[in-house]
UniProtKB/TrEMBL annotation:
Major localization listed first in the record, in broad terms: membrane
InterPro entries reported in the protein's UniProt record: Sulf_transp_TsuA/YedE
Bilayer topology annotation: Multi-pass membrane protein
Organism from which the protein derives: Frigidibacter mobilis
Domain of life: Bacteria
Protein name (record): Sulphur transport domain-containing protein
Family in the record: Belongs to the TsuA/YedE (TC 9.B.102) family.
Key words, A-Z: Cell inner membrane, Cell membrane, Membrane, Transmembrane, Transmembrane helix, Transport
Cellular compartment(s): Cell inner membrane
GO annotation, cellular component aspect: plasma membrane
Transmembrane segments: 12-41, 53-73, 79-98, 119-140
Length: 142
């Protein structure tokens, strides 16, 4: 069972888009979460590392901001086992490595630039997601 949250989803999408536009406007960088994290782990010059650390900190600390504004933690309901979460994370990491980016880099920024590579990647991971949901919910019964 999934929840339909159009207003919350719209607001989240707008914030992601705004963050991507601001990062490109002020730093000339693509907002790809995987690239941000991998660059942070690789190191490099301090200015670049600081920007990546600030972006990652914002992603991690955002639920605390929701708590401050609303008085409640964001709802988090993960209806799968820890094994499925870890397995899914490993598969996503593998896909990101082979696909040369993630949903934020390809799906948000690349598609906005009409990048054929990003459009192909987005179609690929969306098709995979559709098949995965169908198989796990309707064929396996999870």
């Amino acid at each position: 069972m999934t929840s339909f949250t159009p207003l919350t989803s719209f607001a989240g999408g707008m914030l992601i888009g705004l963050a991507a536009v601001l990062l490109m406007a002020f730093h000339g960088r693509i907002f790809g979460a995987t690239g941000i994290l991998s660059g942070l782990l690789r190191g490099g010059d301090m200015r670049d590392w600081s920007l990546r650390a600030a972006l990652l900190a914002g992603m991690v600390l955002a639920p605390g901001l929701v708590l401050l504004v609303t008085g409640n933690w964001p709802a988090l309901d993960v209806p799968v086992s820890m094994t499925a979460i870890i397995g899914g994370g490993l598969l996503v990491g593998l896909g990101v490595s082979y696909g040369g980016g993630c949903t934020s880099g390809h799906g948000v920024c690349g598609n906005a630039r009409f990048s054929r590579r990003s459009i192909t990647a987005t179609l690929s991971f969306m098709a995979t997601a559709f098949v995965t949901v169908y198989v796990t919910r309707h064929l396996i019964g999870g």
